[in-house]
Design a protein that fits this description.
The chain is of the alpha/beta class. The protein has helices spanning 5-8, 14-19, 38-46, 82-88, 105-109, 135-141, 144-155, 160-171, 179-185, 193-211, 213-227, 241-253, 284-289; strands at 28-31, 52-56, 72-75, 94-100, 228-238, 261-262, 268-269, 272-274, 297-303. The protein contains 13 helices and nine strands.
Length: 304
C-alpha cells in the first residue's frame, strides 16, 4: 500500500481546530497526533520564522510523512510522554497543543493492520507495531470475564457477555488469528445494519485495550496542563463518548473525574478554562467529503 501525506489521513475540523490555538507567529506548538501531518502543516503555515512545531506519533508509517521544515521536529513516541519530551528538548512551556484522537483514515484503510472489519486481516490493531499485545493476544489470552468487561466498558456492547462466551468457546477449538475468524465466531450478521454498528463497537473496544488509549489520553492531558503556558491553548478532537468525557472533565475541572473544586470564596479552581461550552462539529459539507468526521467533536480550552 502506497502511503502519502494526502492518503494517510484527511484532517478533520482543520480550520476550526487550528483557529482555536490562536497561533502566535513565534510560538511553540505540539501536535499530539501527527499522522499525515495535515494539522502540523497548517500550524507551520501560520507561524513565522522563529516558531516551532513538535509532532508526536508512535506509528512508523507516519514517519514517511515528515515535513521538511527546520521549524518542525518529529517525535517518535506515544503522546502520553509529552512532558518528558518537552523537557528533553529543553522546552519549558508551549503556546498550544492539538490532538486529533482516534484512528486515522490510513489505519482503517490499510488491509494489513486489522483495524477494520471490512478486510480479513491479522488481528493486530497496534498503533505501534514495535511493541505490545496484539488484538489476537487479547482475544485468545484474556479470561471470559476480562473479555466481557472490556467489550462492555470500551465498546458499550449490551451483549458483551454473550460475545465473550462465544469467543472463549471457539478459541478452545482453534486460535482466533484474523478479523474474519473473530467475526465468524461472534454471532454477528454482517448484512444487518445494527450488527454493523455492534461490530464497529467490538473493534473499538479491542483497539482501545490494545493501545491503552484512554490511559494514554489521561496521561497526555495531565502532561499538557503542566507544559502549557498561561494563556496557551488546548484543542482536542474526539470521536466517541469515552474519550470525549475525559477531555470534557479535564477542561472543565482539571481532573479526570470532573470533580469541581472551589477556593475559599466559592470560585471554581481549575488549570483550564473551556472556550466553547458547546462542542464544535464539522459542517454538513465536511461530513459529506469526509465520512470519518461525522462523529467528531472539537473542544478548546485555555490555560489559566
Amino acid at each position: 500500500m502506497i502511503v502519502t501525506a494526502e492518503t494517510y489521513h484527511v484532517p478533520v475540523l482543520l480550520t476550526e481546530s487550528i483557529d482555536g490555538l490562536a497561533i502566535q507567529p513565534d510560538g511553540i506548538y505540539a501536535d499530539m497526533t501527527y499522522g499525515g501531518g495535515g494539522h502540523s502543516r497548517e500550524i507551520l503555515r501560520r507561524l513565522g520564522p522563529d516558531g516551532h512545531v513538535y509532532g508526536f506519533d508512535q506509528d512508523a508509517d507516519a514517519e514517511k510523512n515528515i515535513v521538511g521544515d527546520k521549524r518542525f521536529t518529529f517525535v517518535r513516541s506515544n503522546f502520553r510522554y509529552v512532558k518528558q519530551w518537552m523537557r528533553y528538548f529543553h522546552v519549558e512551556k508551549v503556546d498550544g497543543v492539538l490532538a486529533d484522537l482516534g484512528v486515522s483514515s490510513h489505519h482503517f484503510d490499510d488491509e494489513t493492520r486489522g483495524f477494520s472489519f471490512r478486510f480479513n486481516a491479522p488481528l493486530d490493531m497496534r498503533m505501534n507495531r514495535r511493541a505490545g499485545l496484539t488484538a489476537a493476544d487479547i482475544v485468545n489470552g484474556y479470561t471470559e470475564e476480562q473479555l466481557a468487561d472490556l467489550l462492555y466498558i470500551y465498546g458499550e456492547l449490551k451483549q458483551a457477555r454473550k460475545i465473550a462466551a462465544l469467543v472463549v468457546k471457539a478459541r478452545a477449538q482453534h486460535r482466533i488469528e484474523t478479523t474474519g475468524d473473530l467475526l465468524s465466531v461472534s454471532g454477528f450478521d454482517p448484512e444487518n445494519g445494527q450488527c454493523k454498528k455492534d461490530m464497529a463497537r467490538l473493534f473499538q473496544a479491542l483497539r482501545i485495550e490494545v493501545n491503552q488509549e484512554l490511559t494514554a489520553l489521561k496521561e497526555m492531558l495531565c502532561g499538557v496542563i503542566e507544559v502549557l503556558r498561561p494563556g496557551g491553548r488546548l484543542s482536542v478532537i474526539t470521536y466517541h463518548s469515552l474519550e470525549d468525557r475525559i477531555v470534557k472533565n479535564m477542561m472543565k475541572a482539571g481532573n479526570i473525574e470532573g470533580r469541581m473544586e472551589q477556593d475559599f470564596f466559592g470560585r471554581t479552581v481549575s488549570p483550564l478554562r473551556p472556550l466553547n461550552n458547546k462542542v464544535i462539529v464539522p459542517t454538513d459539507d465536511e461530513q459529506q467529503r469526509n465520512p470519518r468526521s461525522r462523529s467528531a467533536k472539537l473542544r478548546i480550552a485555555e490555560k489559566v
